[in-house]
Write a structure and sequence with these properties.
The chain has one domain. Strands 1-2-3-4 form a four-stranded antiparallel sheet, with helices on one face. By secondary structure, it is an alpha+beta fold. The protein has two helices and four strands.
Length: about 100
Protein backbone atom coordinates (compact mmCIF):
# COMPACT_ATOMS: atom_id res chain seq x y z
CA UNK A 1 0.00 0.00 0.00
CA UNK A 2 2.88 2.34 0.82
CA UNK A 3 4.45 1.82 -2.63
CA UNK A 4 1.13 2.46 -4.36
CA UNK A 5 0.75 5.77 -2.51
CA UNK A 6 4.28 6.88 -3.46
CA UNK A 7 3.73 5.90 -7.11
CA UNK A 8 0.42 7.80 -7.21
CA UNK A 9 2.05 10.85 -5.64
CA UNK A 10 4.91 10.84 -8.17
CA UNK A 11 2.48 10.44 -11.05
CA UNK A 12 0.46 13.41 -9.78
CA UNK A 13 3.56 15.60 -9.52
CA UNK A 14 4.72 14.50 -12.97
CA UNK A 15 1.39 15.34 -14.57
CA UNK A 16 1.21 18.68 -12.75
CA UNK A 17 4.68 19.76 -13.90
CA UNK A 18 3.93 19.38 -17.61
CA UNK A 19 3.62 22.84 -19.16
CA UNK A 20 0.16 23.63 -20.48
CA UNK A 21 -0.04 24.16 -24.23
CA UNK A 22 -1.54 27.49 -25.19
CA UNK A 23 -4.17 27.85 -27.88
CA UNK A 24 -6.46 30.46 -29.34
CA UNK A 25 -6.34 33.98 -27.92
CA UNK A 26 -3.82 33.08 -25.20
CA UNK A 27 -1.38 31.78 -27.83
CA UNK A 28 -1.82 34.90 -29.97
CA UNK A 29 -1.17 37.15 -26.96
CA UNK A 30 1.97 35.20 -26.05
CA UNK A 31 3.29 35.37 -29.64
CA UNK A 32 2.66 39.14 -29.73
CA UNK A 33 4.37 39.57 -26.34
CA UNK A 34 7.38 37.53 -27.48
CA UNK A 35 7.74 39.53 -30.70
CA UNK A 36 7.29 42.79 -28.78
CA UNK A 37 10.13 41.84 -26.43
CA UNK A 38 12.30 40.90 -29.40
CA UNK A 39 11.62 44.19 -31.20
CA UNK A 40 12.36 46.20 -28.03
CA UNK A 41 15.80 44.55 -27.91
CA UNK A 42 16.68 44.84 -31.61
CA UNK A 43 15.22 48.11 -32.92
CA UNK A 44 17.06 51.42 -32.75
CA UNK A 45 16.43 53.58 -29.70
CA UNK A 46 13.54 55.97 -30.25
CA UNK A 47 11.56 53.69 -32.54
CA UNK A 48 8.07 53.13 -31.19
CA UNK A 49 5.90 50.33 -32.47
CA UNK A 50 2.51 48.74 -32.02
CA UNK A 51 1.81 45.15 -33.03
CA UNK A 52 -1.74 45.07 -34.38
CA UNK A 53 -2.25 41.34 -34.96
CA UNK A 54 -0.58 38.06 -35.76
CA UNK A 55 -1.20 35.28 -38.23
CA UNK A 56 0.59 32.07 -37.32
CA UNK A 57 1.02 28.48 -38.37
CA UNK A 58 2.24 25.84 -35.89
CA UNK A 59 5.03 23.75 -37.40
CA UNK A 60 4.84 20.43 -35.53
CA UNK A 61 7.96 18.89 -37.09
CA UNK A 62 10.26 21.79 -36.20
CA UNK A 63 8.40 22.55 -32.94
CA UNK A 64 7.90 26.24 -33.63
CA UNK A 65 5.44 28.81 -34.98
CA UNK A 66 5.76 30.56 -38.32
CA UNK A 67 4.28 34.03 -37.78
CA UNK A 68 3.42 37.24 -39.62
CA UNK A 69 2.85 40.34 -37.51
CA UNK A 70 1.21 43.56 -38.70
CA UNK A 71 3.25 46.33 -37.10
CA UNK A 72 2.91 50.12 -37.00
CA UNK A 73 6.18 51.98 -36.38
CA UNK A 74 6.90 55.62 -35.57
CA UNK A 75 10.32 57.28 -35.73
CA UNK A 76 11.23 60.97 -36.01
CA UNK A 77 7.61 62.05 -36.65
CA UNK A 78 7.30 59.53 -39.49
CA UNK A 79 5.20 56.42 -39.39
CA UNK A 80 4.80 53.28 -41.43
CA UNK A 81 2.85 50.06 -41.37
CA UNK A 82 4.34 46.76 -42.43
CA UNK A 83 4.67 43.05 -41.93
CA UNK A 84 7.32 41.41 -39.78
CA UNK A 85 7.73 37.69 -40.40
CA UNK A 86 9.46 35.46 -37.86
CA UNK A 87 9.75 31.93 -36.54
CA UNK A 88 9.19 31.58 -32.78
CA UNK A 89 10.07 28.42 -30.85
CA UNK A 90 7.37 26.53 -28.92
CA UNK A 91 8.90 27.62 -25.61
CA UNK A 92 8.81 31.29 -26.77
CA UNK A 93 12.53 31.75 -26.02
CA UNK A 94 13.97 31.91 -29.56
CA UNK A 95 12.90 34.32 -32.29
CA UNK A 96 14.31 34.07 -35.83
CA UNK A 97 13.26 37.06 -37.90
CA UNK A 98 12.64 36.21 -41.54
CA UNK A 99 11.48 39.58 -42.90
Amino acid sequence: MKHFFIAALLLTFGAGCKPKELSGVALQKQLIKTMGDYLHKTLRPGVQFTIKDVTYYPEKKEKDYICQFHVEMQFNKKDTTGIVAATISNDFKKVFRIQ
